[in-house]
Design goal:
about 130 residues, 5-stranded mixed beta sheet, 7-stranded antiparallel beta sheet, single chain, mainly beta
Length: about 130
Amino acid sequence: MLELTMASVSAADAGATAGMMMADAPSDPGSVLRVGRDTSVCRLVTPDDWLFVSRVHLEFLCGPEGDWQVGWLRGSLAEPSSEVVLTLAGQPAQALPYGGAVRLPRGASGELVIRDRTAPRSVNVGFYHEAHAA
């Protein structure tokens, strides 16, 4: 099971946090959870006017062994208007490259932060990949 939480944070609103959203999916091969602005394919949807987030920005995909990976999907622009930083519990933060992906270890928890490069706002996506016997 992969569990996600998402909050939209804007420093322009004195650190206001928009509603917290949650989604989860079983660790079955082919399971997918997406984060972005497109309500037709994303389980966690950001505000429509937050254009620094792509229609489909992050994709969590379960592989054949029940392991999850997260990828930052390339959008229509050659250079993104945001940056994505991944923090796994107990490890230093690392940038997730545009178009790149990283595997999430079983039992891992952490956070992905999508930061707008032009304004003080972000989308914070927390995750927990439940450890289970395959």
